[in-house]
Fold this sequence. Notes:
- The chain is 35% helix and 17% strand.
- By secondary structure, the protein is of the alpha+beta class.
- 37% of the residues are buried.
Amino acid sequence: MDQYLQATRFFDYDHPAVRDWTRRQLEGVADDPIEQARALYLSVRDQITYNPYIFSEDPQTFSASHALQTEQTYCIPKAVLLGAAARSLGIPSRLGLADVKNHLSSERLIEWLQSDIFRMHGFIELYLDGQWVKATPAFNASLCEAMGVDPLEFDGRQDSVFQEYTREGHAHMEYINDHGVFADLPHGFIVEGVRSAYGHLFGDDAPRPDASTSLEDDVRSSR
């Protein structure tokens, strides 16, 4: 399990910002790994705004510390932040990557991607009570409310990976391709996958959305 407990360039729980943030989130939380993991999950889910428009090839933008400094990012760095905080407590973690269809999105996001497939969706696996459990802290509760889906919960014992249906019972989201799990973030593999799926987003003439606008802003402005 040692490889799933190491501080790395991306799982940088030895960074002062990550160390201090983790400590603050656990104030008043019982000294129990499952309770600690649940508290950290909710903190990552709701304190860091989900914003896919700020994707960058810069390796630093994938790190846990960068997610905290910007307070907005997309699924992979949010998963890394949860994994890094867990590792600092002695809870092994590893990054999972998959492609999903009908990802929480807007007309603007689908138009920007030119696809309803979201390549390289990230989640984290935590080793709790003798088993690996999946957790997906990507979508903050306010975004879910705007989209008409319940926020994704995590109890530390069962996999928590997607909102399969809207509140009205409509099919919403499915995993269509599993890329596996990783002890550290595979930067080159992720960038290559994103480039192969959305080549039009790279290059000098690529569309540049306003990164100060999040997916939640899209949804609320379309109402």
